[in-house]
Amino acid sequence: MQKITILLLTFCWFSSCEDDLNLTPISEVGSNGFFSSAGDFQQAVNGVYASLGVSGGGDYPAMYVILDESRSDNIYSPGDAGVRDWNAINNFEPTIATLGSIDRAWNLNFNAIMRANTVLDQLAENAGVIGDADLATHFEAEAKFLRAFFYFDLVKWYGRVPLIETFVSPDEALEIPRAPVEDVYALILSDLEFAMNNLPESYSGSERGRATSLAAKAILARVYLTRSGPELHPDGPCLASGEYDLAAAMLDDIINSNQFAMLDDYGAIFSYTNEGNSEIVWDVQFISGGVGAGGYYPTEYYDEGWARVYLPFPGGNPGDGAKRVSDDLLNSFPEGDLRVEHTFKLNYINDNGEEVDAQFFDKYTDEDMAGGDRFDWSLNYPIMRYTDVLLLRAECTLQGTSGSQADVDAAVNAVRRRAGLEEVSDVDLGKLLEERRREFAGENLRWDDLVRTGTVLEVMNAFIATEDANNKMQTVTVEDIIYPIPQQQLDVKQGLYEQNPGY
């Protein structure tokens, strides 16, 4: 299948792949005649999507492996030498403001937002050159969807952040303070509402992978659910807003669209030869062989010792910093759970012929489909699966929206039947979260689940008490719910930002 990625990820847009906010080349495009046709605007929108891939300044899924999965109780990675970013993040060290991963996540999201803002500015000034009002509105909806998508990450990870709705110069950016979380959410909600009202439900052919109205509703449901969570941190992403009914309405629209369905085979969801299947609501597109078009994120999970034997190129986590799947997660799977085989690599034979006790995620790895190097995996990365829609809807019911206990049990049992497990009854929030943990293991949702439901402190500290044999993990506090502002950002202009408490 032809993929949109060929266009998206080979286009390092207007020199903005650098890890800073020096986006001066973007400010020049309106004066040099770039936005003079519909094709130019299409290419510019493609450039916003490019932020999700390697050529966009990082690799969006790989960023989530470090900042979400490695932060959660799904991975135990204290590190022997303690020099890897994910080790410090896994250990809840308070000195992580200088880490490259913290800085890259800030820059990746803001660079993407600047790209989206440039498109929106130019649409306001030059939309007439497109020659089709509906197409211009479509471009606007895509740019707003992506701007909201990236701002949602910033709120979840950093709390209060600068609110920038138009292109600004580097000097102007130095005058913009952090905005209250509620103000950032106001823009996110407005952008997603515009997107869901002005995008199609689906695409075909090479257009697949673009934002749809149903993808906008899916992200909007996550936003409402996150806003509704208990307000543990005064500047965190949860506002105790009680918007579960609004989330349920978005999820019901997706379900009632009849565009999606659960697959019978769990492993088929992540097959390299079954991309774009009925389970996928929206995913990030990758393709092997193009310059910067492949993904790096599978490499973030596996051990380099395994790669030396089973892959045609080096890469993976070194022995002193392996992202080892926690015993706590593995022990949560009932005997006979079919998902285990498709989710984990538990041992392998190394290059000395010895069996290695390994515990890493290999949900996204197929050695027969390896590309040219560790940055060249072609598997699309799912942002939202239909099973997630069903389980989030069950969560809304448990939080008091329409629906019954039977509906909640039915959603969970559909997941369990596919996993080869017996059915259960009287599912509560705790049982739902445990099923989500198993179903989405390695999909970078666990930390968000814990924060959104207000269970993060209890769960993580209980995990540390039983799992941390190396005694390197620190007690998790409310302050750990969000990350520090990158030190590099604090140093650009003294006094512009205050560091988040606890760092």
TrEMBL record:
All residue ranges annotated as the SusD-like N-terminal domain in the record: 83-225
Keyword Membrane: yes
Alphabetized UniProt keyword annotations: Cell outer membrane, Membrane, Signal
Subcellular location: Cell outer membrane
InterPro entries: SusD-like_N, SusD_RagB_dom, TPR-like_helical_dom_sf
Protein's recorded name: RagB/SusD domain-containing protein
Organism of provenance: Neolewinella xylanilytica
Keyword Thylakoid included in the entry's annotation: no
Similarity field: Belongs to the SusD family.
GO CC annotations, alphabetized: cell outer membrane
Coiled coil: none
Taxonomic superkingdom: Bacteria
Residue stretches making up the RagB/SusD domain: 363-503
Gene3D superfamilies documented for this protein: 1.25.40.390
